[in-house]
Design a protein that fits this description.
- The protein is mostly helical.
- The protein is 61% helix and 0% strand.
- It has a domain at 46-71 and 79-162.
- It contains six helices and no strands.
- Helix 3 (82-107) packs parallel to helix 6.
- The radius of gyration is 23 Å and the shape is elongated.
- The two termini are 29 Å apart.
Length: 174
């Protein structure tokens, strides 16, 4: 079957590739897009691991006030210590900065960094500021917010770096 312009149109559920063009009346501008480099295994692993680790951190911080008495009884008192918290925040910061910087170099979009920066400010404030760190509820809220923001930043970065949109023309299963 053909449309008015003579292009072949397929019916009965066959997949179609459609290209749409937008014509403007104004002068055209040439836009040079950066060439996408192949993403290394570390970058993909770091974003996946970072998003899961940040969500675990957010859950840890949200539930810790309720589990504070239970942790030493079951042998996990180290999870409530300040030393563990400093180490975990430092590790999460380094992982997030390395992963998102590598992603930014590839996609040149600030969106993931816009979630990462407030998340890092929140978790470091929760660890370093006595006003926040010494109050269990404030600490839990700030750290949960920060961990969630870092996890969202990793997920956004992963999506920006994925570079493939699933549609009817995919050769693989969804």
């Amino acid at each position: 079957m053909a449309d008015r312009a003579g292009n072949t149109v397929r019916l009965s559920g066959e997949s179609m590739n459609v290209i749409l063009f937008h014509m403007s009346a104004g002068p055209t501008k040439s836009i040079r897009l950066p060439v996408a480099r192949k993403r290394g295994m570390f970058a993909a692993w770091a974003d996946r691991f970072g998003s899961v680790a940040s969500l675990v951190c957010a859950l840890h911080c949200a539930l810790l006030p309720f589990l504070m008495a239970l942790l030493p009884a079951v042998g996990f008192g180290v999870l409530a210590s300040s030393g563990f918290e400093y180490g975990y925040v430092a590790f999460a910061s380094v992982l997030a900065l390395a992963s998102l910087w590598q992603g930014y170099r590839r996609h040149r979009v600030y969106r993931a960094l816009a979630f990462l920066v407030p998340g890092l400010i929140a978790v470091w404030s929760g660890v370093l500021l006595p006003l926040v760190h010494d109050d269990a509820i404030r600490h839990a809220v700030v750290m949960t917010f920060g961990g969630t923001m870092i996890a969202v930043a990793h997920l956004i970065n992963l999506r920006l770096n994925h570079g493939h949109v699933h549609d009817a023309g995919c050769a693989h299963g969804h």
